[in-house]
Write a structure and sequence with these properties.
The structure holds 2 protein chains of 2 kinds.
Chain A: H1 15-30, E1 32-37, H2 46-50, E2 61-63, E3 72-76, E4 79-80, H3 81-93, E5 99-103, H4 105-109, E6 119-120, E7 131-133, H5 140-155, H6 161-167, H7 169-180, H8 190-196, H9 207-215, H10 227-233
Parallel strand pairs in A: 1-2, 1-3, 3-5, 5-7
Antiparallel strand pairs in A: 4-6
Helix pairs in contact in A: 1-5
Chain B: H1 3-35, H2 45-54, H3 64-81, H4 98-104, H5 107-119, H6 122-153, H7 158-168, H8 174-177, H9 179-192, H10 204-207, H11 217-242, H12 249-267, H13 275-298
Helix pairs in contact in B: 1-11, 1-12, 2-11, 3-5, 3-11, 5-6, 6-9, 6-13, 9-12, 9-13, 11-12
The chains are: A alpha/beta, B mainly alpha.
Bound molecules: iron/sulfur cluster.
C-alpha cells in the first residue's frame, strides 16, 4: 500500500503507561474529525457515506470545517498543481496526529489524468498518505472500508506516518520544489515544529530546506485596507 | 454545614454537571441523527472526542490570551455550577442568586472573545461580533424573565425559589403561575444556546464555525467541555425558575433533559436567520411576552 514502511511506535515499559497509550489510541480511533478537501469527482461519494444510507457518524467520524479542528484530510480525486499547493497549506495547519486519505485512483498514480501537464500524479510524494482507496470512483462502502482500515491502524498504534513529514521533511520538500519551483514556501515552520515536538530526524533538514531558507521571506500580516483607500493611494 | 462537606459539594457539583452535560451533547447528536433517519454516534462518543482532542501531539497556540481565554470561559462555568442548586447539594447557591448568575453567564462569551481576538482570523472576528450581537439580543428578554420570576416569587435566591415551588406543589410552579414568562424564557433559551434558527455565530458553512475557527486540540476540547456546561446550566436554570427544581435526582434529570431537548429538536428543523433578523425577532416576541408576563407577575 505504501512506498515506505510505517514506523511503529515503541511500547513503553511501564504497564500503566501502556494502558494509557492504548486508551488514547482507542479514543483517537473512535473519534475522527475529517476535513474533506473535495478536489475531484470522487467527492460525490461522500454525501451518501455521511447521510442516512451509510451514516459515518455511527463510527465516530464527523465532518469538521477547518484544518485546525480536523484529524483526517480526505483528498477526493485528482489534484491539480494549483490545488496541491492549497492541500499542502491545509495539511500543515492540522494538529498532529493527522492522517491523509487518498480517495480515487487519481491520487494513487494520476489515474486517467496521467498525461495531463497540470495534475500531480502520486499524492504520496508530497504528503504522507495513510490509506489509499482506489477506484474510479470508489463506492461509499469502499470509503467506509478504507476508514475502518485506518481506524484499525490507529488503534494498533501503527498510523504514525504523519511523523514522517517532520522527520523526512527534506524529501517531501524536494518533491514540492520540483513541482512548484524553487521559490515555494508555506507559512508553517515545519523545521521549528519538528524541533519543538521532538520530531526532528536526520532527514528533516537537507539540501532542499537550505534552498528554502535562502529565499524564505518572513511572514507578515496583511494590511487591511478598504477599497477606497487603495484607489486613493494609487 | 461543615467545611469539608462544602468542599466536597464544590468539587462534586461541576463534576456532575460535566457528566450530565456530556450526556446532553450526545443527546444533541442523537436527536439530529434520528431526525435525519441515521443511527447516530455511539454512547461514549462525546467522551472519546474530548479525550482525543486533549491528546493531540501538536497543540497550535496563538499566544497567552488564546489559552487564557479558554480557561476563563470554562472556569466561569465551573463557578456557575457551584451557584445553581441541585437535589441534595446547594453549594454556595444561598450566597449567589439570580442577579449574580445573569452576570456570570456573560463571562464565558467574554473569555471566548479574549481568546479569539488573539487568533487574528477574520472568520473568528466576524463570528465574535455576531456572538456579541446575539448576546445583546437575548439578554433583554432574559433579564425581563429573570426580573419577572424574582417579582413573582418575591426572591432572587435560587434555594428559596426551589423551596417555595416544592412546598406548594405543581400549582405553584413558575410555568403554571406565569406561563407567559415561561414561554418567553424558552424563546430566550433557543437564542442563548445559539441553536438554529439563531445559530448566527457558528454558521459552519458560512464563516467556518466563527469563534472556533482557529481552535484545535485542547482548545476545541475546552470548548466541548464549555458547551456541555452550557447545556446543563441552561437546563438547570430553567428547571429551577419554572419547573420547581428537583425533588430527587430522578425527576430532576428528566426535567432538565426535557427542557434542553426542546431547543435542540427545534434546531434541526430550521435554517439560520441573518443577524439583523434575529435581533428583530428576539427583541420583538419574547420581549412582548416577557413584558406581559411581568404585568401578570406584578398584579
Ligand atoms: S479516479 Fe476517476 S472519479 Fe476519481 S478523480 Fe480520478 S477520474 Fe475522477
Amino acid at each position: 500500500m505504501n512506498d515506505f514502511p510505517l514506523p511503529v511506535r515503541a511500547e513503553r515499559s511501564n504497564p500503566l503507561a501502556r494502558v494509557f497509550d492504548e486508551l488514547i489510541d482507542f479514543c483517537r480511533a473512535r473519534s475522527m474529525f475529517m476535513l474533506h478537501y473535495c478536489t475531484g469527482c470522487g467527492a460525490i461519494e461522500l454525501p451518501p457515506a455521511m447521510t442516512s444510507r451509510f451514516d459515518m457518524e455511527r463510527l465516530g467520524i464527523q465532518p469538521m470545517v477547518t484544518p485546525r479542528q480536523a484529524d483526517i484530510l480526505l483528498i477526493t480525486g485528482y489534484v491539480s498543481i494549483k490545488t496541491l499547493k492549497r492541500v499542502i497549506l491545509t495539511y500543515e495547519q492540522m494538529g498532529s496526529p493527522k492522517y491523509v486519505i487518498g480517495i480515487c485512483s487519481c491520487t494513487v498514480n494520476g489515474g486517467m489524468y496521467w498525461q495531463s501537464y497540470a495534475t500531480a500524479k502520486k499524492l504520496n510524494e508530497y504528503l504522507p498518505v495513510d490509506v489509499y482507496i482506489a477506484g474510479c470512483m470508489p463506492r461509499p462502502e469502499a470509503v467506509i472500508e478504507g476508514l475502518r482500515k485506518l481506524m484499525g491502524e490507529i488503534k494498533a498504534g501503527r498510523a504514525n506516518s504523519w511523523e514522517r513529514y517532520f522527520r523526512e521533511y527534506d524529501r517531501y520538500l524536494a518533491a514540492q520544489q520540483n513541482l512548484f519551483g524553487p521559490n515555494w514556501q508555506t507559512p508553517t515552520d515545519i523545521i521549528g515544529e519538528a524541533r519543538d515536538y521532538q520530531l526532528y530526524g536526520p532527514g528533516t533538514e537537507g539540501r532542499h530546506t537550505e534552498l528554502l531558507q535562502q529565499h524564505q521571506v518572513p511572514l507578515q500580516p496583511l494590511r487591511m485596507t478598504l477599497h477606497s483607500d487603495v484607489e486613493k493611494s494609487s | 454545614m461543615s467545611t469539608t462537606h462544602l468542599l466536597i459539594e464544590l468539587v462534586l457539583m461541576p463534576l456532575v454537571a460535566f457528566v450530565v452535560g456530556l450526556a446532553m451533547l450526545l443527546m444533541l447528536r442523537k436527536i439530529g441523527a434520528r431526525l435525519q433517519r441515521r443511527v447516530g454516534p455511539p454512547l461514549l462518543q462525546p467522551l472519546f472526542d474530548v479525550i482525543k482532542l486533549y491528546s493531540k501531539r501538536t497543540q497550535v497556540s496563538h499566544g497567552l490570551l488564546h489559552e487564557a481565554g479558554i480557561v476563563v470561559a470554562v472556569g466561569a462555568y465551573v463557578a456557575i455550577e457551584t451557584l445553581v442548586p441541585v437535589p441534595g447539594m446547594n453549594g454556595i447557591a444561598e450566597k449567589g442568586g439570580l442577579i449574580l448568575l445573569s452576570y456570570l453567564m456573560m463571562v464565558p462569551s467574554l473569555g471566548l472573545a479574549l481568546g479569539v481576538g488573539q487568533c487574528a482570523n477574520p472568520n473568528g472576528s466576524i463570528g465574535l461580533s455576531r456572538a456579541m450581537t446575539a448576546m445583546l439580543a437575548y439578554d433583554i428578554p432574559f433579564m425581563l424573565v429573570v426580573f419577572g420570576v424574582a417579582w413573582q416569587f418575591q426572591t432572587t435566591n435560587l434555594v428559596e425559589l426551589v423551596a417555595v415551588q416544592q412546598a406548594g406543589g405543581i400549582a405553584t410552579w413558575g410555568i403554571v403561575e406565569n406561563p407567559l414568562l415561561a414561554i418567553a424564557g424558552l424563546f430566550g433559551l433557543q437564542a442563548m444556546l445559539g441553536k438554529q434558527p439563531f445559530e448566527i455565530y457558528v454558521a459552519p458553512a458560512e464563516i467556518a464555525t466563527g469563534p472556533m475557527v482557529e481552535m484545535g486540540g485542547k482548545f476545541l476540547g475546552g470548548l466541548f467541555v464549555m458547551q456541555s456546561f452550557q447545556f446543563y446550566t441552561a437546563g438547570v436554570l430553567y428547571t429551577t425558575m419554572f419547573l420547581g427544581g428537583g425533588e430527587n435526582w430522578f425527576t430532576f434529570l428528566i426535567k432538565i433533559f426535557v427542557v434542553v431537548a426542546i431547543p435542540l429538536s427545534v434546531a434541526f428543523m430550521f435554517p439560520r436567520y441573518r443577524t439583523e433578523d434575529m435581533v428583530r425577532l428576539v427583541w420583538k416576541w419574547p420581549v412582548i411576552l416577557a413584558l406581559l408576563g411581568l404585568v401578570v407577575a406584578v398584579q
